[in-house]
Model the fold of this input.
Amino acid sequence: MTRARLETFADGVFAIAATLLIIDVAVPSSLEGPLGSALLHLWPQYFAYVVSFATIGIMWVNHHRVMQQLERVDEPFVFLNIGLLLCIAFVPFPTRVLAEFVRTDDGNAAAVLYGITLIVTSVFFGSVWLYAAYGGKLLHPDADPRMVSGITRSYAPGVPIYTAAMLVGLVSAEASALLYGLIAVFYMVSSATFGRAGE
Amino acid sequence: MTRARLETFADGVFAIAATLLIIDVAVPSSLEGPLGSALLHLWPQYFAYVVSFATIGIMWVNHHRVMQQLERVDEPFVFLNIGLLLCIAFVPFPTRVLAEFVRTDDGNAAAVLYGITLIVTSVFFGSVWLYAAYGGKLLHPDADPRMVSGITRSYAPGVPIYTAAMLVGLVSAEASALLYGLIAVFYMVSSATFGRAGE
Amino acid sequence: MTRARLETFADGVFAIAATLLIIDVAVPSSLEGPLGSALLHLWPQYFAYVVSFATIGIMWVNHHRVMQQLERVDEPFVFLNIGLLLCIAFVPFPTRVLAEFVRTDDGNAAAVLYGITLIVTSVFFGSVWLYAAYGGKLLHPDADPRMVSGITRSYAPGVPIYTAAMLVGLVSAEASALLYGLIAVFYMVSSATFGRAGE
Amino acid sequence: MTRARLETFADGVFAIAATLLIIDVAVPSSLEGPLGSALLHLWPQYFAYVVSFATIGIMWVNHHRVMQQLERVDEPFVFLNIGLLLCIAFVPFPTRVLAEFVRTDDGNAAAVLYGITLIVTSVFFGSVWLYAAYGGKLLHPDADPRMVSGITRSYAPGVPIYTAAMLVGLVSAEASALLYGLIAVFYMVSSATFGRAGE
Done:
């Protein structure tokens, strides 16, 4: 397996998972009242679409940053990546559930499902990186040690902050959804800063 | 992040967003009368499919033209691109709404939604280019200044003409839809001419 | 625009259009009788899936053969390709309609719709090639003249045979559907032979 | 046809088929009881999603291993690959049927359909490889004979074990589904070992 073909496959899954999110944004088939107000009331759908698209986009940027440090890939690394991509391709499902139920009495379960998905994804992301950097010894011989430890540090907060947002979901689905959005913004800002400092 | 991997991801989103449009072209499940006439009455669906596919195709050509001028990409540029791709992947939704409602009393809201989507997309497209050319200094050192100012000029009319077409949608959804189609034709012709002159 | 990026985008649309066909193969939601016999009665769905997937696959092979002869691409060629891809991405719709209606009284309209789609696609395919080879002068200087005239000849039968199969559809939808399948087989065999002789 | 473009198209179909699986994971539209328990009762959907995603992922790894041994591709090889990709793009359909019916009286038919799909896919996979290695003489002149015979051996168990799992489906759909999952795990482990030994 070459790095290039793994990247092609991964880029495909990232791009498709992100683009499929729009399938679930839909006007209710039994429309009551004018379309204009129905479109305005769809804001949880738009919000969920933007947060999940941005989250997948950030993960794609991170995946690229990992791949750039590698000299080669091996079979266990490829299968860890398939596990990671399995999680990312799963994201449209909790997104759809969150968008549909966030304003209902069932919102808590939806917010928790969304959180669990991102926690498992974070675990796989961490595993992919830890295996590449330490277990499988796949790094370029001349990979910058500060960059390597910087990436390792950048994975540390993933599980705790998604767990916190998920626990908030037990109390308030709306607050939890808002946190998922803020986490995406936080990652985007820190990633842009990281890129600036590290490249 | 390399230019090549950003292009792969972007090409994926453009291709998927355009191809997903066909999912929304459908014969009504409760068919009244013969299929032949039902298929003929689907013309707003066909029209919306063609206009949105062409619009996404033109944006893909423009995106390529921008990328060709760049020496490198940086993190803010990548995140601006994710925002742009988020808008392009959104296009199937207003397309579906416009096709379904253009001939109904709710057509105005559908036409306005379609217009707003393309206005926001144009704003992101302009931001991507202005950041690349002026803010982020990502251009090739030997980029042709006439090409650069030609691209800058070519983005100027986007927001005004989509705003005009959207405002027409407040009065007549059909006229607005027709304008979206004409704008696509106009862009296709001017892009072909631009390419001729600039390359 | 480079040949490589046009190929990436085209390959994406071909692959997505072919893979989306499976979305329309579905067990009726109100299942009467055992699942086993329902699955057997879905044979028009399977047949339509196989014929359309094979047809798109053959077109992808042909598209590659055209691209291989080119030294460069220009803007009008790119826009002709967007038109061609618009047709190919449209194929899932007539496939779905044909699979659903071929055994009903509305089968004729479905068979005609399928035929018209492939006729228009053939026209665009011919235009793409004729422009590349003769109008736009995009060929490699050292393109083999026998290969070039061989490709030109291979496009000649497309419109007549799809028109014939469509006209048969006015009388019998089943016979028409069978012809679409036979045409795919014929193209596959002649393409394999062509490849053998020409390479 | 170049090896590279066949890989791009194949990677696209693999990635899309795997990512489309999530469309079929859905909360019932008429929800009875709380969402939380409905999400828990969806476990056959999650299980089917994971098994099919992993199965497609493993096939993608195997496809890559085959392609790596080739010096060139020819037209019959390309058409065998289109047949293989047709099978892989079909996988979302039996996955959806299995997930929906595994716990019902119709589970047996669903398990058999899933098995037949994977048997036919295995036959195509074997044909692709046997043609490349022996019929079409497409291998690199310096391909490692032990690698070549290792790949040939690795295809031998495919049809028998999927046939066995399918036959179990005649008696118990759940047991059959469990076997499909175990086969995926077995392939993943043996593939990782194979890669270790062979590279």
Chain B has a mean pLDDT of 89. Residues 107-135 of chain B form the longest helix (29 residues). Chain B touches chain C at residues 7-8, 11-12, 14-16, 18-23, 25-27, 31, 34-36, 39, 49-50, 53-54, 57-58, 60-61, 64-65, 68, 188, 191-192, 194-196, 199 (CB under 8 Å). The radius of gyration of chain B is 18 Å.
